[in-house]
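User: Hi! I'm working on a homework problem where we have to compare a predicted structure to a textbook description. Could you give me the structure for the chain below?
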Amino acid sequence: MGTILENKTTLKKVLNIVFYVVLAIVFIYAMFGLFSKKENNSISFLGITSMSVQSDSMLPAFKEGDLIFISTDFDTRELNEGDVITYIDFKQTSQGLVTYYNTHRIVDIDKSGTVWRFTTRGDNNSSNDPRILLENEIFGVWNERSWAGFGKFADNFTDFLKSSLGFFLFIVLPCLALLVYEVIKFMKVYAEYNVQKHTADRVSLQEEAIRIAREQIEAEAKSEVEKKDTNQQE
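Assistant: Happy to help. Predicted structure tokens:
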């Protein structure tokens, strides 16, 4: 009997843990879906912007496949030579002109005009980037934080979460599991209620039967006493 009770207690704990894990997954997915934005190799979540590095042009600072973190709250007039910036770049492919984000180091700043111009170069490149950047083309500044080898995972994970399969696995399936769990829990509570109600009704009937029997016995005893008194008076 004790083993059965221990097994039930363990199962209940496991189900509770599963319930809260599923709830956490749904919450995280919902938060990510609502507050994340993916654009090319840029991922923004709750004000934190990261970039998946697509080449080794910035070795040894970071390499292809790394995830770097970008600050988008900056003043271009406070940038200096040596700062690593992320900017909007373009590339001609067989599918047409592709826009993407590139991250290179500032090697020169032209402050002669009303609009500053920035020359950049990858640390691993032998020549400067062919295009001079204008201030409004700078997207962010690298804050010198990076996660080695995490870029591809972040890209693939974000794409998966935003896919139909990811939505099904992280939202539809957990919600169905929670629904089934709540239905089973409700049925169990309802069954226990019926058992308790049935037990209470049976106890009530037994108490009523005992009360009636007691009253009958008391009435019979009273009747016997009255008969004896009557006989003695005669």
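For your comparison, note the following. The beta strands are 36-39, 42-45, 48-52, 67-71, 84-93, 96-110, 117-121, 133-134, 138-147. Residues 40-161 form a domain with the Umud Fragment, subunit A fold (CATH 2.10.109.10). Good luck with the assignment!
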